[in-house]
């Protein structure tokens, strides 16, 4: 009896082995790591669906990860431990430089899609003359989302100076609404007032980026740079924030500005994509303006290049990954993404135009791009250093724990650590 | 039975029993711990280590948020240890006295010790939400304004400490119950006959005689408090800002940011902290016991 | 009159204990069976529909059955490391207690260090990478053994002092080899403390968050605690699923506890007081 069972088992396993050996080209599975913002997830899924339709022997598994500082650290750790997915999404600019791309990433200069990518993007994914990433999404800006209904009801107009902004805030507060939404559970959202102020900083001190990288200028010693921290403090001191700012999340912030609970939410314009996913009925109620300076003549947008797709050198499926990434950087893919999410700014791929109708928030942004000198890339794209603790420092300032001058000094120290770890000269 | 021949008898307790454990323990624990002393003096990125002397330690003692972590660690350890000891003893006294449902109560108190720390952390974070959390909502209905347990930087660390005590007091209680059980009832009898009050009995008899258990509870909870990471990470990640950072979370954050040398320096400091606090403490306590 | 007092104090104690110690668990259980909108209110109202199974299945299915994989991994790590741990620490505790050798002093100090000193994480990661055991289950299991060896060994050493040497001698006379004395005579007698040890170590290793966080990154190796932590960001607005997840993660140690309640208490107190 047992002998017979053994025979059957042997036969079955032999058959199984034969089947498993299968046809000569095996199916490939690629792992794709993205952040967990709803718009990213939607865009990624659309891309993957389109690609899998074209290449049926490839399966792509999407894995979302946390965003913000924790996400940065997940990326760094996975790269360091060789645990990275075949394709991953991550910021461009200085955050990319912190990953030591020439050592850790696959060179993508030879991809066919690179021909149509705008040079301004290529410059932020370049290291040692080679290109390491493919754009994911459009350019975006950092500024302030505002609720148009509240503005209409209270007869407010878009502020051109910081003083105007604070005046608007006072009126909103008097009307019983939250003036400025802050969401410190997701610590990365606390950085906006500081980072979006870079246009104003650049206008006042044009050489800041270069000097800062060469260890000649510091946040604490440059009054124009200190402004960003001071603005955050002003908002806190005037009592303009939502009661639960310490525990509110990015999702809460979006909800507040979309539904009219809050008048303002300082944020990057990729939030419009998230709004489209989660609050589509309120999409038209949200507008956008650049963070004003003290002077009405200096008013422009700080621009972020979109994140990019990268391939780690440790990937076991580099060839297939390259094909997918090439697709993602193509005009066709760009159009798919634009359809899925609201556009977040001008596109960086030649031939991928913006649709005729865009949400009001984006419409508000376009004039800045069309005019001359009304945009500046954010600091992290013109300097390789960004301290990892900024978001915690800005939470402290926004919560009233730390004074701006002190915070700026702290940030300078943090930046010094990062610069030394990167092995930059002059530090 | 006598052994007349002077040759050494082979011991029935083989020394090779030590070897497997020694290899695992030595390689995976002792070696890294010793090498951390070297790596804490370097700037390290896992492939190259550049010697920088005491710079990492200088940073730890000068950068405000690193110093804060150090200070917080001490506050956290002392607070949780103190509360666990006091509450544990009081609970143990209650649960060894003649009350109804004693066994059931003991189980109830010990329950949280066994549960996932992360689960507890998440649960209490939700319950402590400043506006929607059940704790503050209940306080509102009683007319008391609820504080920002985890959002007020002055309170965050203490809120986590409270949850830590909630979770760990059961173990302290258990150890104290065992310690109390070892005290002979004759002492109490004699005291009662002499007319001593309950309070006097507690301070003159219970407290001194329960010392062995007290030492164990204080030592265990101090070490645990100094090394604490899970709960703080689950509830606040060291925030808001840096106000609830402790050395263990600083070590993790520096590791994540890729500053491996700095992270290892943190380990060495924690190491030193525990040694400096626990060793003298244990010696002091043991000496007092001898004197008694 | 005096006989009422224990009942009154008991009742008060019970009520207070219920609020403090039981209420959070009730909270978790309640939210876990509610629908998404009901759970977002985070109150103590009873749910309209008991969605226990729906929520359970939803949580298990999430991210390609990640929770099921996590359960497998956590269980494997726990069972394997506890088994090795018990065996090795009993062996060491036995020889330390019985034999007079200079190695005892060395071992004592080494073990004492293990009780107090925090492991140096980054050097350990570096070491594991060199050996090729980083982010492997084997590596994790060995780490758990190494980190828990001190407590376990000292526990055994203390308990073995209660087993009379005459038994060893008797077995020797009967012609038993040293190895056999340990496995046939001593080990069975260690059962009470072994049971306690197994329970305590299993619960500790199953609930361990920090060590897998550092040494076991990667999707295939995910453990139950890590899954719970990660799902936090996924379930930002789905409290009912988050709490169902918490419920599922806290159940196994609870089951173990209910089964071994008496042994845990007895074993802990024995070790603690004898010291």
From TrEMBL, chain B:
The residue ranges crossing the membrane are 15-39, 74-96, 108-128, 165-188, 209-229, 268-286
**Compartment list:** Cell membrane
**Is Transmembrane helix set as a keyword in this record?**
yes
Any one Gene Ontology BP term: transmembrane transport
Q: Where is the ABC transmembrane type-1 domain?
A: 70-281
Entry GO CC: plasma membrane
User: What's the protein's topology in the membrane?
Assistant: Multi-pass membrane protein
* InterPro entries linked: ABC_transporter_permease (IPR051393), MetI-like (IPR000515), MetI-like_sf (IPR035906)
Q: Which UniProt keywords apply?
A: Cell membrane, Membrane, Plasmid, Transmembrane, Transmembrane helix, Transport
What the record says about family reads: Belongs to the binding-protein-dependent transport system permease family.
**Which protein is depicted?**
Binding-protein-dependent transport system inner membrane component family protein
* Organism taxonomic ancestry: Bacteria, Pseudomonadati, Pseudomonadota, Alphaproteobacteria, Hyphomicrobiales
């Amino acid at each position: 009896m047992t002998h017979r069972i053994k025979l059957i088992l042997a036969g079955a396993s032999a058959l199984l082995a034969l089947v498993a050996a299968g046809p000569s080209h095996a199916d490939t599975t690629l792992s794709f790591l993205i952040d967990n913002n709803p718009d990213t997830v939607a865009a990624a899924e659309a891309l993957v669906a389109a690609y899998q339709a074209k290449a049926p022997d490839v399966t792509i598994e999407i894995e979302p990860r946390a965003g913000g500082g924790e996400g940065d650290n997940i990326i760094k750790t996975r790269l360091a431990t060789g645990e990275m997915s075949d394709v991953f999404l991550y910021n461009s600019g200085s955050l990319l430089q912190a990953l030591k791309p020439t050592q850790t990433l696959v060179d993508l200069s030879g991809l066919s899609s690179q021909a149509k990518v705008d040079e301004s993007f290529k410059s932020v994914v370049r290291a040692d003359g080679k290109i390491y990433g493919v754009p994911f999404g459009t350019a975006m800006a950092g500024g302030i989302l505002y609720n148009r209904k509240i503005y209409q009801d209270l007869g407010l107009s878009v502020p051109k100076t910081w003083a105007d902004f604070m005046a608007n805030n006072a009126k909103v507060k008097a009307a019983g609404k939250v003036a400025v939404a802050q969401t410190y559970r997701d610590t990365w959202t606390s950085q906006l007032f500081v980072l979006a102020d870079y246009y104003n900083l650049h206008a006042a001190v044009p050489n800041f980026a270069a000097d800062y990288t060469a260890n000649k200028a510091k946040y604490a010693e440059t009054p124009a740079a200190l402004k960003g921290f001071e603005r955050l403090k002003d908002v806190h001191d005037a009592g303009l924030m939502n009661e639960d700012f310490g525990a509110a999340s990015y999702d809460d912030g979006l909800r507040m500005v979309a539904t009219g609970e809050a008048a303002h939410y300082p944020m990057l314009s990729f939030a419009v994509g998230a709004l489209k996913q989660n609050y589509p009925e309120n999409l038209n109620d949200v507008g956008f303006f650049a963070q004003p300076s003290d002077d009405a003549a200096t008013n422009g947008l700080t621009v972020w290049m979109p994140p990019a797709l990268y391939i780690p050198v440790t990937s076991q499926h580099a060839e297939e990954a390259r094909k997918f990434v090439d697709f993602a950087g193509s005009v066709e893919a760009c159009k798919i993404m634009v359809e899925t999410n609201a556009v977040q700014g001008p596109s960086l791929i030649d031939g991928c135009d913006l649709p005729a109708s865009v949400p009001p928030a984006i419409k508000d942004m376009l004039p800045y791009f069309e005019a001359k000198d009304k945009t500046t890339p954010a600091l992290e794209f013109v300097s390789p250093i960004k301290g990892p603790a900024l978001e915690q420092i800005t939470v402290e300032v926004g919560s009233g724990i730390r004074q701006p001058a002190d915070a700026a000094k702290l940030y300078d120290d943090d930046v010094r650590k990062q610069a030394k770890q990167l092995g930059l000269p002059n530090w | 039975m006598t052994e007349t021949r002077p040759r050494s008898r082979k011991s029935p307790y083989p020394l090779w029993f030590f070897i497997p454990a020694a290899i695992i323990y030595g390689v995976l624990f002792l070696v890294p711990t010793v090498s951390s002393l070297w790596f804490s003096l370097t700037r390290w990125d896992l492939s190259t280590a550049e010697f920088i002397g005491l710079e990492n330690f200088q940073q730890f003692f000068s950068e405000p948020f690193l110093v804060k972590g150090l200070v917080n660690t001490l506050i956290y350890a002392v607070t949780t240890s103190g509360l666990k000891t006091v509450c544990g003893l009081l609970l143990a006294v209650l649960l060894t006295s003649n009350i109804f449902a004693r066994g059931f109560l003991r189980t109830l108190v010990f329950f949280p010790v066994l549960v996932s720390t992360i689960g507890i952390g998440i649960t209490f974070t939700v319950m402590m939400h400043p506006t929607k959390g059940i704790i503050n909502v209940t306080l509102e209905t009683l007319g008391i304004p609820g504080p920002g347990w985890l959002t007020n930087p002055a309170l965050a660390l203490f809120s986590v400490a409270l949850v830590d005590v909630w979770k760990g007091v059961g173990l302290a209680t258990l150890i104290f119950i065992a310690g109390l059980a070892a005290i002979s009832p004759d002492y109490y009898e004699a005291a009662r006959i002499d007319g001593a009050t309950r309070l006097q009995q507690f301070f003159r008899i219970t407290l001194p005689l329960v010392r062995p258990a007290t030492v164990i509870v204080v030592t265990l909870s101090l070490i645990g408090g100094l090394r604490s990471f899970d709960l703080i990470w689950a509830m606040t990640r060291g925030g808001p800002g840096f106000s609830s950072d402790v050395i263990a979370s600083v070590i993790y954050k520096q590791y994540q940011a890729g500053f491996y040398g700095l992270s290892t320096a943190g380990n060495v400091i924690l190491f030193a902290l525990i040694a400096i606090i626990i060793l003298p403490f244990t010696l002091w306590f043991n000496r007092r016991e001898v004197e008694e | 009159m005096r006989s009422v007092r224990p009942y009154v104090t008991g009742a008060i104690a019970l009520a207070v204990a219920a609020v403090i110690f039981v209420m959070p668990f009730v909270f978790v259980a309640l939210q876990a069976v509610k629908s998404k909108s009901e759970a977002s209110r985070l109150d103590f109202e009873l749910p309209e529909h008991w969605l226990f199974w729906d929520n359970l299945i939803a949580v298990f299915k999430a991210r390609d059955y990640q929770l099921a994989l996590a359960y497998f991994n956590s269980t494997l790590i726990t069972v394997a490391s506890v088994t090795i741990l018990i065996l090795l620490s009993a062996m060491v505790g036995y020889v330390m207690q019985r034999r007079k050798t200079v190695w005892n002093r060395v071992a004592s100090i080494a073990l004492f260090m293990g009780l107090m000193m925090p492991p140096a994480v980054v050097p350990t990661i570096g070491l594991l990478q060199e050996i090729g055991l980083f982010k492997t289950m084997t590596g994790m299991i060995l780490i758990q053994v190494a980190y828990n060896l001190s407590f376990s060994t000292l526990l055994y050493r203390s308990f073995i002092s209660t087993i009379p040497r005459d038994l060893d001698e008797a077995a020797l006379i009967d012609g038993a080899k040293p190895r056999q004395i340990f496995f046939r005579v001593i080990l069975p007698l260690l059962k009470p403390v072994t049971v306690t040890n197994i329970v305590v170590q299993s619960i500790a290793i199953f609930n361990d968050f920090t060590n897998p966080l550092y040494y076991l990154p990667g999707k295939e190796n995910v453990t139950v605690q890590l899954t719970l932590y990660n799902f936090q960001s996924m379930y930002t607005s789905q409290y009912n699923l988050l709490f169902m997840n918490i419920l599922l993660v806290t159940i196994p140690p609870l089951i173990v506890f209910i089964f071994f309640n008496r042994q845990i208490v007895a074993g802990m107190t024995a070790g603690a007081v004898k010291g």
